[in-house]
Amino acid sequence: MIATLVGAFGPVLFKKASGEIKFNLSAIKNKNLLGGVFLYGVATLIFIPALKGGDLSILYPLVGLTYIWVSLLSVKVLGEKMNYKKWIGVTIIIIGVSLLGIGS
Q1: Total domain count for the chain?
Q2: CA nearest to 66, candidates 51, 44, 83, 81
Q3: Containing structural domain, residue 89
Q4: 12: which residues sit within 8 A by CB, 6+ positions away?
Q5: Cβ–Cβ under 8 Å, residues 37 and 10
Q6: Along the 104 residues of the chain, how does pLDDT read in single tens digits?
């Protein structure tokens, strides 16, 4: 769960970086871009021990929770709007992850 939350900040920072980035060598100095890559790496490092002790068939679908965190963070941090179709998608992801948890 923690890995999905940490990993969700990566795309948010990438979105912020996309507005300021130039496609040349100066891109590697972009703090939001570097922060996004760093957080993806941290999320992966958090996820690896979970893989060691759990079933991949259960753990990997939990990565789908990242979509939920990204949606919520997009609203809060980036000021994006959520419509009812997006909320239905988030609800379906929650139901799917819950069913996987119940089934294990």
Answers
A1: 1
A2: 44
A3: 2-103
A4: 36, 70, 73, 74, 77, 78
A5: yes
A6: 889 999 999 999 999 888 777 666 667 778 888 999 999 999 999 999 988 888 888 788 888 888 899 999 999 999 999 999 999 999 998 898 888 777 66
